Amino acid sequence: MGEELRGDGWAVATFRVRYAETDAAGIVHHATYLVWFEEGRSALSRLLGLPYAELEREGIDLVLSRVEARYRRPARYDDLIQVWTRADEVRSRMMRFAYRAVRVADGELLAEGVTEHIPVQRASGRPVRLPPRFLTAWSSDVAKARRLKGEFPLPELGAPLRATD
Q: Which residues fall within 8 angstroms of residue 22, CB to CB, at 6 or more apart?
């Protein structure tokens, strides 16, 4: 439905839950959140002016090396969802992205997660350095997020779950 790059380093992708993303009980299947994280990452890249397709045209793929997801509340068919995404750490041979999926109607945090990626040369499968313009764009996003830390009023990723969470 829409994409927005905020001044605090977060990209926000907004869309509705599709019927195909739900199980027999009408609740979004857990694996769907990983697809939403991917969409958030793609939106961030587009909004920074460097779509993934450009990286792929150069023969570089971003291989997933780690994924972490914490599910907090269920989403249901036709809920309006926002996926907040930011580059959390960027080095020449590794990127980490943070995600938060939120229901727009009530602001409820549905899921949060992180992914880490390694750039590899498609032809050889060997790790390579990110092209400088990607490294610069994603690094500037990290710098914005660090300068304005606390802008997103939700629990920090990696914090231990408490019985009240």
A: 28, 29, 76, 77
